[in-house]
Write a structure and sequence with these properties.
Number of helices: 3
CATH architecture of the largest domain: 2-Layer Sandwich
Structural class: alpha+beta
Number of strands: 13
Order of helices and strands: HEEEEEEEEEHEEHEE
CATH class of the largest domain: Alpha Beta
Helix content: 10-25%
Shape: elongated
Distance between the termini: 63 Å
Number of domains: 2
Largest sheet: 6 strands, mixed
C-alpha cells in the first residue's frame, strides 16, 4: 500500500512539472488560401512571446507552461486589414490558421454585391410595422450583458438592408470602446442582426441597397 501511494505521488509530481510547449503553423487568407507574410502571432497569456510569419506564412512559438499535463497554447493572430483570430494549438501541434479580411464599417465606395449602397433614397428601408414596432422589439429583446461594466449611452449600429430586406454587414459606427468589440456592442449587433426581414428601400421606383444607422440606447 505504501509503495502504491509513493508511485501515485511520484506520478502526480511528474504530471504537474513544467512542460515545454512548441507550436507552429501557417497563416493563410481564408478566401484565397494565400499564405500571409508579416502576420503577428503571440501567446495570449504571455504576450511578450511573439513572432511574425515568414514568406511562406509559417510561424513557430515556444514557451514553458506549468500545471497538470501539457496544456494547449492559446495564440492570437492579427495583422492590418484582417480580423483578429484566436486559436488553441496542442503542445507539439501544427495548425493552418485561416484569417478573413476585415470589411471597413463604412467602405468607400459603399458597395455590396457590386451594387451601390444608398444613404439617400426615395423610400427608406423600414422595420416591419414601422418605428414603433422597432422600439417595441428593442424593449422586448434588449438585455444588459453581465460581463460589461456599468455604462449608459447609445451604441450606433450601421448596416445595409438589401433588396430582399435582409440585414447585411452590420457594424459599430464610431465605437466608444477601444480594442476588441465590447460585450455591450456585441448585444447591439446581435439585436440588429436578428431582426425580421425589413421592407427594402426604393429609389426611382426600384428596390435598392440602403445603408441605415440607428442608435441602441442602454
Amino acid at each position: 500500500m505504501t509503495r502504491l501511494l509513493t508511485i501515485l505521488i511520484a506520478l502526480t509530481i511528474l504530471s504537474s512539472c513544467d512542460c515545454y510547449q512548441l507550436v507552429n503553423g501557417v497563416v493563410i487568407d481564408k478566401e484565397t488560401g494565400k499564405a500571409l507574410q508579416g502576420v503577428t502571432v503571440f501567446n495570449k497569456s504571455k504576450e511578450w512571446i511573439k513572432t511574425t510569419t515568414d514568406e511562406t506564412g509559417h510561424f513557430e512559438l515556444s514557451s514553458v507552461s506549468g500545471g497538470f499535463g501539457c496544456p494547449p497554447m492559446a495564440i492570437v493572430v492579427e495583422t492590418t486589414g484582417y480580423k483578429r483570430n484566436e486559436i488553441s494549438i496542442p503542445a507539439g501541434g501544427q495548425e493552418i490558421v485561416k484569417i478573413e479580411k476585415e470589411i471597413p464599417c463604412l467602405p468607400k465606395p459603399d458597395l455590396l454585391d457590386n451594387q451601390p449602397v444608398y444613404s439617400q433614397v426615395d423610400k427608406n428601408a423600414e422595420f416591419p410595422g414601422g418605428q414603433s414596432a422597432f422600439l417595441n422589439y428593442l424593449r422586448q429583446n434588449l438585455s444588459y450583458p453581465k460581463e460589461q461594466k456599468e455604462w449608459q449611452g447609445s451604441i450606433y449600429v450601421t448596416f445595409v438592408v438589401d433588396t430582399l430586406g435582409k440585414i447585411r454587414n452590420e457594424c459599430i459606427y464610431k465605437p466608444y470602446f477601444k480594442g476588441e468589440i465590447s460585450p455591450i456592442e456585441k448585444v447591439a449587433l446581435k439585436l440588429i442582426k436578428e431582426t425580421p426581414s425589413w421592407t427594402p428601400a426604393e429609389k426611382n421606383g426600384k428596390k435598392v441597397y440602403n445603408r441605415v444607422t440607428l442608435p441602441i440606447r442602454f
